[in-house]
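[audit] Reproducing an earlier prediction to check determinism. Same input, same settings, fresh worker. If the tokens differ from the archived copy the diff job will pick it up downstream; this log only records the rerun itself.
[audit] input (327 residues):
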Amino acid sequence: MNRLMRTLFLSAVRRVQEAGSVPKYVDITAEISIIILRMLTEVHEFAYAKVNLGLRVLPRRADGFHGIEGIFQTVGLADELIVRLTDGYGGCDVSCEGFPLPQENTVVSAYRAFCSSTGERVRSVRVEVIKHIPAGGGLGGGSSDAAALVRALRKLNGITLCGSQLDRIAAEVGSDVFFFLHCDETGGGCAVVSGRGEIVRNIRRRPDICFVLVFPDVHSSTRDAYALVDGQLAAEDGGTYPAFGSLESVYRSSVSEWNFVNSFTPVMTAAYPEIDKALQGVRGSGALYSEMSGSGATVFGVFVSEKEARNAADVLANRGFRCAVAR
């Protein structure tokens, strides 16, 4: 029995065991076989959001990309992808109820990049995306969806990818995808990120903090946000940042001592009063640290207990903010 089949078999056995007693008239071997068959043709993946605890944007490079320095961490808010095999090879059909996707989207791009990176015939799939991560919120939802599809395709096709292949996929789809493809097999992780996003150094994720995410009614264009930051950089008003080499040690320190900075925050809060209002609301909620994530518009506060986070979220919700609690 190869490794994939052994993993599927053991997983199926656990499912049967977790279901409790099996009726006498049910053949347990047949039950396990049905579960394995379903697992070979359908995969359910979670695509977790990320927050940028700090994000320094560097001047535009010769290749058109901006350099960045920061810490990315996944949180419990997640999209869901149900990926089913269909007849044939090389096709990817994507649907998302209540959320119109452009014909060219990150999931389709990830499928094509997977095919070109592996150089193998890849089974056609139908992908159902269930959105929970706000679009245009600076939480990397589209990039995380792309990485989740790659994990599903690996399982459904029995293909193992090396690091360089994963990086080629990310380079074709988007800079945030590098981080998500370097997360663990469940899609969770934390890392110090630099370059255009392709230099990812995984670090141990802190289990002792909880986030309140607030979603202003603003759709932030990444392109426009970078244009605003370029203007800030041209004016040599880039702010003061912790040294790149100290980012992990700052992350390990007391949350109340964090001095991370997001280059996008000053220009985005100036351009969108709703973001500034949400950020001020979080800062007044008792958060030990608060910032905007990525290019916005989501802002977040960090708490040391889920109870404190939920109390703050209740206060913010009563003030009219749309928010969520996530670890």
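[audit] rerun output stored. Observation attached for the diff report: The two ends are 38 Å apart (CA to CA).
[audit] end
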